[in-house]
Specification:
The complex is a heterodimer of chains A (about 325) and B (about 325).
Chain A (H helix, E strand, L loop, with lengths): L4 H4 L2 E16 L3 E17 L3 E5 L6 H8 L7 E6 L2 E2 L5 H10 E4 L3 H4 L6 H11 L5 H14 L5 H5 L8 H13 L5 E5 L7 H18 L2 E6 L2 H4 L5 E6 L2 E7 H6 L4 H9 L51 E4 L2 E3 L7
Parallel strand pairs in A: 3-8, 3-9, 6-7, 7-8
Antiparallel strand pairs in A: 1-2, 1-4, 4-5, 9-10, 10-12, 11-12
Helix pairs in contact in A: 6-8, 8-9
Chain B lengths: L3 E14 L2 E14 L3 E5 L6 H9 L6 E10 L2 E2 L5 H7 L5 E4 L13 H13 L3 H15 L15 H13 L5 E5 L7 H17 L3 E6 L2 H4 L5 E6 L2 E7 H4 L6 H8 L47 E3 L2 E3 L6
Helix pairs in contact in B: 3-4, 3-5, 4-5, 5-6
Classes of the chains: A alpha/beta (about 325), B alpha/beta (about 325).
Chain lengths: ~325, ~325
């Protein structure tokens, strides 16, 4: 990407040419193929910046996220944080890295151990990261619970996850992600399991924390309508590749890639006139990641396919406006 | 409004628990015309799924109170015996697509057999005729016919959801209850499923009760809207009137919490939590969280009529 105002903040997380493939094995035959979950993804994350990765299930967004968290190893390419490559970090180094990256899971109830109290859940990361003083741990637990607006704190410390509502559980998950004072938060569909009104509460809370601590946030979602309230840049992913990236307003108001356009038309807004017409939906389903189609991976579903080009050669990224890029042959100069 | 198909009046369903009676459905009334779709909007725990179960008489053992009136095509269902209800109503006149239907298919039966089963049970036809009917239903919901011989795990989430809809359709019921039909699906799959439902509604003589918390997608199917809060329906009206301007303060707040793709409106949320249905507040149940509450709200509001819409709020007295 070219030099812009955004880029003047220093990029401290770099994802470069990342490929995350999973081996497919058949008994007796060894490796018979690969699931190419993430295929050549490159982007930078700047201090204090909120970005969104948008895509449907199976597009590779969760694999990308888990690679950023250091849970999967890429087969090619790398993730580097503050100039250090993740692949070169030893155990101690990985621990240092993980203290800087908080993770907010999708399903709060599944993410919280059912047999631990809220206090114990929040103390755990501090113990792992060597905060030995019990009083200090308790003070930090209290501080972080105040921050996620779970007051009075004393009412919640002794509670188990099942005693909390969905919104409160998600607050505990956020508190756990925040307790080590990270610089990045990775949030995987943090609000998709919640009711409409609670959803807004949690989004506002995350936004508030982001601003107060100058956090960088990677927000992963399939729902374009929540993105605008939360992020500065959007990356649209399809079948393991980023097909379009741009600033939120540009991308929502002038979507370039046919897939982004389909996603936007597919998203409902509360309007009674919706019931009168059918929605335009591209035919078919996302391709298999084991044998993705040649050329542009969206071409079998694309209404604007250019025969002899889209189905042969994978499109490079074309720049339409400043900071607004798309991998689609329609925008070839 | 089209001629009335279903008329529900003062439907009550309370459960007895160790901590006392839970008032899951409390004096719910609404009606629904032929070939119409009504959306029951509400957040989790408001009793909307219990309402679906009450209509289909799929009741657990701890029912404390079950009364009121459900009239389908002029026939009172509440006075039918359980056996009559099973033979003549459930899955014959009213069927259901349960919540997370895509995960409720039998993993060891071929999906075609599962779709054909209600025909065998309720219409006493032979296997070949039932399979023929199942095949027709697959065409209606847009599932390739050769999928009849597949197992649930061989289908994508969207396809499984379509199979579940086919299963509800197969006996040609007058009414289908959809409980959160698209909440676990991706955007484009959601849009696809709603296209299927719209087509079914247009081509076949079928009415829908759509139960959901998702206001934005509910507008895809709604002719009428009923908003449910803490076991009660607080507002009903035509979709054309409701979506632009909801009346009840709860509906208004709910609408203001929906994220939009365009525009700059700030999102709002409702402070506090929905009340426990064990001992809901006396008076208006929304009053403790309502910004517009006043002295009268300590009394339970009746249902007021305004421009053909019904709202349970003292502001409209």
């Amino acid at each position: 990407m070219t030099e812009t105002a955004v880029d003047k903040r220093d990029a401290f997380l770099r994802i470069n040419n990342l490929h995350v493939w999973f081996e497919l094995r058949r008994f007796g035959f060894g490796v018979v193929g690969h699931v190419k979950a993430v295929d050549d993804v490159t982007f930078d994350l700047h201090r204090g910046e909120a970005i969104a990765i948008v895509g449907e299930s199976g597009c590779g967004k969760s694999s990308l996220m888990k690679t950023i968290l250091g849970l999967h190893k890429p087969v090619k390419g790398e993730v580097s944080f503050e100039g250090k490559r993740l692949s070169e970090l030893d155990r101690k180094g990985l621990r240092w890295y993980r203290a800087h990256v908080g993770y907010v899971q999708q399903d709060p109830y599944g993410a919280l151990p059912p047999f631990m109290t809220v206090q114990r859940i929040l103390e755990e990361p501090l113990i792992v990261h060597g905060v030995k003083d019990r009083a200090e741990r308790e003070a930090r637990v209290r501080r972080v619970l105040e921050e996620v607006k779970m007051h009075p704190v004393d009412d919640f410390l002794g509670k188990f996850p099942h005693m909390l509502s969905g919104g409160q559980q998600q607050r505990v998950v956020i508190a756990r992600a925040m307790i080590l004072e990270p610089q990045i938060i990775v949030a995987d569909e943090p609000v998709s399991m919640l009711d409409a009104s609670v959803r807004v509460e949690i989004l506002k809370l995350l936004r508030g924390l982001q601003e107060a601590h100058n956090l960088a946030v990677i927000y992963i979602t399939h729902d374009l309508s929540t993105v605008r309230y939360f992020s500065e840049r959007i990356f649209v992913m399809y079948a393991g590749k980023i097909v379009e990236k741009g600033r939120v307003d540009d991308l929502l108001n002038q979507p370039l890639h046919p897939y982004t356009r389909a996603l936007l038309t597919g998203t409902s807004e509360p309007d009674a006139r919706n019931a009168l017409t059918y929605k335009e939906v591209p035919p078919g389903e996302p391709p298999s990641l084991v044998t993705p189609p040649p050329g542009c991976r969206y071409h079998p579903r694309c209404p604007h396919v250019i025969a002899g080009l889209c189905d042969v050669q994978a499109p490079p990224e074309f720049q339409r406006e400043k900071d607004h890029l798309t991998a689609c042959w329609l925008y070839k100069e | 409004m089209a001629s009335t198909l279903l008329k529900i009046q003062d439907l009550v369903l309370h459960f007895s628990t160790m901590r006392g009676p839970v008032q899951a459905v409390d004096k719910v009334s609404f009606d629904l015309g032929h070939k119409q779709a009504v959306v029951i909007l509400g957040e989790s725990g408001c009793g909307k799924s219990s309402l679906a179960k009450a209509i289909l008489r799929l009741l657990p053992r701890n029912v404390a109170e079950y009364k009121g009136s459900i009239v389908l095509d002029g026939i009172e269902l509440m006075t039918l015996s359980d056996e009559e209800f099973r033979q003549n109503v459930r899955w014959v006149r009213i069927s259901m697509v349960p919540q997370a239907a895509m995960n409720s298919l039998n993993p060891v039966l071929k999906v075609g057999d599962q779709v054909a089963e209600p025909m065998l049970v309720h219409h006493g036809v032979d296997k070949a005729a039932a399979m023929e009917q199942a095949k027709k239903m697959f065409e209606h919901v847009g599932v390739p016919v050769d999928f009849l011989h597949r197992y649930a795990f061989e289908l994508s989430g969207g396809m499984r959801q379509r199979v579940a809809i086919a299963m509800a359709l197969v006996t040609a019921p007058a009414l289908i209850i959809l409980d959160e039909p698209t909440s676990a699906l991706d955007v484009l799959t959601q849009a696809n499923i709603f296209n299927v439902l719209k087509r079914i509604k247009k081509e076949l003589e079928i009415s829908f009760i759509l139960i959901t918390h998702d206001i934005a997608t509910s507008s895809e199917l709604a002719d009428r809207v009923a908003v449910m809060y803490a076991g009660q329906i607080v507002e009903t009206g035509d979709a054309m009137d409701f979506f632009p301007a909801p009346l009840h303060p709860y509906s208004q707040k709910l609408m203001a919490s929906v994220p939009r793709l365009h525009g700059n409106k700030e999102l709002e949320f409702i402070t506090g939590q929905p009340p426990s249905l064990l001992n809901p507040p006396t008076g208006c149940r929304f009053a403790p969280r309502c910004e517009k509450r006043f002295s009268r709200c300590d009394e339970e509001p009746p249902v007021f009529e305004r421009d053909g819409r019904q709202v349970k709020c003292w502001l409209y007295a």
